[in-house]
Amino acid sequence: MNPYLNWLKKVIIAFVLFVISIVLPIISFNYYIDPLWLFGHKNQWNDIQQGFNERQQKVNKWTFSESKKQTDALLLGSSRSTYLNEHDFKGINVYNFAVSSMQVEEYEGYVEYAKSQTGKEFDYIFLGLDFFASNTFRPAPEKKPSYYIENTNSYLYRLKSLASIDTLKKSIVDFQSSRINKPTFIDHRYYSRTNIAKPFSAPIDLVNRRIETNIYEHYQMPERYKYDSNIKDMLIRLKEKNPHTEFIVYTTPITYPRMAVELQQKEYWQGYTNWLTDIVDVFGEVHHFMTVNKVTTNLSNFVDSHHFKPEIGSDIIDHIWNKSNQTNENFGVDITKKNIDESIKSTKRDLKEYENSIFSYLEPIKGTKIFEWNTARFQGPLKSSSILDQTHPFQIVGLKGDFQFINKDSSLLIQPTNVKSSPLIQLGYQLDESIETKSEKRLSVIISLKGLVKNPGDVQLFIQDQANDTWEGVNYNTIISPNQTRAFKVSKVIRDHPSSVLFGIKWTADNESEWVQIEKVEVFEE
User: Fold this and answer.
1) Model confidence over 311-349: pLDDT tens digits?
2) In terms of pLDDT, which residue wins out, 379 or 34?
3) pLDDT at 365
4) Burial grade of 451 (CB within 10 A; 0-12, 13-18, 19 or more)
5) Which of 31, 343, 357, 481, CA to CA, is 20 to 30 A from 215?
6) Main-chain phi, psi angles of 99, to 5 degrees
7) Is 334 helix (H, G, I), strand (E, B) or coil?
8) Residues 94, 200, 363, 259: is their CA dihedral positive or negative?
9) Cα angle at 178 between 172 and 180, to 5 degrees?
10) How far apart are CA 488 and CA 372, in angstroms?
């Protein structure tokens, strides 16, 4: 036999064996799990899916859906709107096309593509509009809708995706998650095979910490805001390109603390009013949920400062479509040109009424109250050298520089004196024999204070315990205001058999014009 033909035969056999032994199993496994949503089947091993690339996955799901021509409506919006269950809409078939950080400029591309697949306009389009997306300085979408659409429709896309090692990696993650019926990956949410998004469960303490972080970051590095007047033009164009479609528009709710810290700023408030006015001008009506209401003031309805839970999504659907009784009454206001001015004034009044509750999520935790600070102890003005004798157990536990203390309106006013270089003070309590403490219990300290300081975080709350001759502590950066008392909390699990427990505030001052006024201290043990 010709040596060349013999060699070629061996190469072909080797290739076939490689395909059969390696590539074919990869293709089969990727098909069975289907992490890219290229097929419609579901089974017990692929019922938990990671939304690692929602835009591509949802374009794929729509493109290869066998029932898309029976779809009556599209739902578009950001990650918040992914929590509206498309199967909760009564009497119509809805496809939820919402994806993370979807911007208004993306709507047209996805709607036009979806229409091209069905050959007709949709009866309805549900638009979930987010206030954050009205900012001129919002991040631009990483890629245009055409990128994902072209991917899906590229030559042999499904086959190449099935044979991909990258797809295999995603398949393994989804398989492992489905096998134990619990996500093994870390993400904002996960999906079922029927396009239902579910958030990762978050205890209320974690929600509170997320909100605290959002608010702290907002004060420390506030985002520039300017209302984007192009929003209105984009919405007009979208409506004009779908003349036979009824648009049902709603705004997404966020937690009251986040809404308040944003709308207290002049630029944000003006943008908020312009945003609502433009939406009503274009569509005639908007179902408005970004208000002060029972849902937004109850943080248990959220998983962070701006993502509501799926049950709130169901309430939104009941309000905007099903017209049935909502779990949360009076959630949602229908704004038209007739009542928009009064609605905006109402929100302004509500913000003013609730402004002292911005940090209400830091209410004292359930538990045994050990003691409250007794302000009657303070006589002033005092020098830091004499405060120890007159205010025990409230005491200086660390000092650099000098401070004076004044009893002001039943509270303690602290000011630096003779400032030379960044005076620092740690002021608080030390638990002793007169206070019953239990080891391995969580201690929480809530301090209400206001003041004038140079930077957010200059004043910290702290708890530290000493065990086995070593100190361990936690800090919390506060954001204090000179005009408004705010409550902040810090918590720590006290180690077994502590020899000492200290807690209070730590303040690094900058100049003599600064001041901190402590109005209340509460300590709780869980």
Assistant:
1) 999 999 999 999 876 566 679 999 999 999 999 999 999
2) 34
3) 41
4) buried
5) 343
6) -140, 165
7) strand
8) negative
9) 110
10) 15
CA separation for the pair 103, 331 (Å, rounded): 25
How far is it, in rounded angstroms, from Cα 405 to Cα 401? 14
DSSP β-bridge partners for residue 428: 395, 504
Task: Name the amino acid, one letter, at 323.
Answer: K
Our separate counts of H helices and E strands in the chain read 14, 21
Length of the chain: 526
DSSP secondary structure of 170-197 = HHHHHHHHHHHTS--S-SSEEE-TTS-E
In this structure, which amino acid lies at residue 358?
I
The band of 224, judged by pLDDT with boundaries at 50, 70 and 90, is confident
Is 144:103 a contact under the CB 8 Å cutoff? no
Dist CA 193 CA 178 (whole Å):
11
First to last CA, the chain: 86
The Cα–Cα gap between 300 and 276 comes to 27
511's tokens = 């100049």
Over 50: is that where the pLDDT of 510 sits? yes
Cα–Cα distance, 152 to 60 (Å, whole number): 6
Strand-pair category, 395-400 with 424-431: antiparallel
Paired tokens of 320: 């905007």
Structure token digits, residue 408: 């002001």
What is the spatial distance between Cα 494 and Cα 447, in angstroms, rounded to a whole number?
19
Amino acid of residue 179: R
Tokens matching residue 270: 């003006």
pLDDT digits (tens, 9 = 90+) for 49-66: 999 999 999 999 999 999
Amino acid at 237: R
pTM of the model: 0.73
Cα 301 to Cα 296: distance, rounded to the nearest angstrom: 8
Whether the CB-CB separation of 73 and 122 falls below 8 Å is answered with yes
What is the distance between the alpha carbons of residues 473 and 321, in angstroms, rounded to a whole number? 51
Are the CB atoms for 446 and 504 separated by under 8 Å?
no
DSSP 29-71: HHHHH-TT--S----TTSSSEE-TTHHHHHHHHHHT-TTGGG-
Mean pLDDT for all residues in the chain? 85
Cβ-based neighbours of 252, under 8 Å, separated by 6 or more: 77, 78, 80, 81, 128, 129, 130, 131, 289, 290, 306, 308
The count of other CB atoms within 10 Å of the CB of residue 435 is 14
Q: Of 101 and 406, which is predicted with more confidence?
A: 101
Which of the residue ranges 4-13, 38-47, 368-377 would you say has the lowest mean pLDDT? 368-377
